[in-house]
Design goal:
This protein has about 250 residues and is of the alpha/beta class. The protein is about 35% helix and about 20% strand. The strands form two sheets. Strands 7-6-5-9-8-10 form a six-stranded parallel β-sheet, with helices on both faces. A four-stranded mixed β-sheet has the order 1-4-2-3. Helix 2 links the parallel strand 2 (about 25-30) and strand 3.
Length: about 250
């Protein structure tokens, strides 16, 4: 389990942290003089849960938020749990043959990671797997982009992604990598059992060893004149094809 102090920025991210993990919210800073109803609600909820709240100037908020739009509120937060690789086996077992995993192979843009986590939470994935190196950290930008989803699903950071994938295969998880040149489409797969959807990074897609470890490569059919989708968009499409099959 990894914990560190960080700043959570923006209305949705701060509200979610207060609601779902108040023990780890150290303090909330709200823009002085603001009458925004959402900010008032956040302040009242924080105080009810015994969290320190301070009203500060916009300049102070900007200094904490940096380039992220703060929307009048930030929170100092002991980062939510990052699950360890040794915990992934238990998560898969608990899914009882219906595990749905999302593996992100070096997604480095925090906005893309946040959007992927949001789709993963909406699809009720079992866990999201990311490499410890060459991946965007689950920071304030990721939490804001995910609209609080980063608090609701297990994010597993692994040292060696290929080794982790091979361990998943030993547990009976089928690995399908998304690749534009694949012959088979995602709609031709049976995604109702233990399945991991493996998405490549923004620049180079799936790395060679990751690609070779997958049980199969599939593509999203695109009749339009577009070569590829943004990784977060492709993730949403792929996950909800799995959801469609599982609810069908």
């Amino acid at each position: 389990m990894s914990k560190q102090n960080q700043w959570i920025v923006g209305v949705n991210a701060v509200a979610s942290s207060i609601e779902k993990d108040p023990d780890n919210v150290r303090e909330v800073l709200i823009e002085a003089g603001s009458k925004n109803a959402r900010l008032v609600e956040i302040e009242e909820n924080a105080r009810r849960k015994g969290i320190d709240v301070r009203r500060v100037g916009a300049q102070a908020l900007g200094g904490v938020a940096g380039q992220v739009r703060h929307q009048g509120v930030v929170a100092r937060y002991a980062a939510a749990k990052l699950w360890g690789e040794n915990e992934l086996e238990g998560l898969v077992e608990a899914a009882e043959g219906r595990a749905l995993l999302l593996v992100l192979d070096e997604v480095q843009d925090p906005h893309n990671l946040g959007a992927c986590l949001r789709s993963a939470a909406a699809a009720s994935v079992t866990a999201v797997v990311i490499p410890k190196d060459k991946s965007a950290p689950v920071n304030a930008t990721v939490r804001k982009t995910s609209a609080g989803a980063a608090d609701r699903i297990p994010v597993v950071a692994v040292t060696n992604l290929v080794r982790c994938l091979k361990d998943l295969q030993k547990q009976g998880v089928w690995l399908y990598g998304l690749a534009g040149e694949a012959e088979q489409t995602i709609h031709q797969l049976d995604l109702r059992g233990n399945v991991a959807l493996v998405m490549g990074g923004e620049s180079d897609g799936l790395r060679r060893l990751t690609r070779e470890t997958c049980d199969g490569l599939v593509r999203i059919p695109m009749p339009g004149d577009v070569e590829s989708l943004n990784v977060s968009v492709a993730t949403g499409v792929a996950l909800f094809e799995a959801v469609r099959q599982r609810l069908g």
